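Justification of resources, computational component.

The compute hours requested in this renewal are based largely on the per-chain cost of generating structure records like the one below. Each record pairs the submitted sequence with a full structure-token output. That output is archived, and it is also reused by downstream analysis tasks.
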Amino acid sequence: MVSFVFASRNAHKAKEIADILSRTLTFDFEVLTLGDIGFEGEIIEDGKTFEENAMIKARAAFDKSGLPSFADDSGLEVDALEGAPGIYSARYASLDGRDADDEENNKLLLKNLEGVENRSARFVAAVGFIDTTESFTLRGEVEGEILHAKEGDGGFGYDPLFFCKEANRCFGTLPASEKNKISHRARAFEALATKLNKRFGAY
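The structure output for this chain reads:
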């Protein structure tokens, strides 16, 4: 069995990632969290890109555990806003550096897009991986556009404002089981699983 560390304290999210990986991985594995390895304190995500922040977290987990480690960083990029909110997606509407709540972020996004015709956008997820022999980043994206008003009450974050072209539906109205098959995060971690099979497939 191969033990991986997912650089998060969120056990629910770790299980979700493990479920995604299990669709593709051909060997036995387990996904540990920061809590499982006794990691204390916070990881300062001061990168300028999703990839940099993902690798900062993965490296912190690897330095603590010595185990193969990975992390993700994700957000929304809106073309008309020059890629904003981007890496600041969780705290887009914050005035003091904290994470703002979904309602605040959605209201600010709609305000900043008032009168804007080009509302193309994409959800982006980057995964950083590191172990004793290599490190790399991978990216998953899903294209869409920002609606003029929220639809549905499913998902979280900007989901109720994001119309997914591939699904031809708003993420806010899409069942989680369907969204998780085509989401940016699923695509990034499916790409990771393909790489891990080549690295650890003999175990």
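The helical segments are 11-22, 50-65, 102-112, 176-182, 184-200. The chain has a mean pLDDT of 94.
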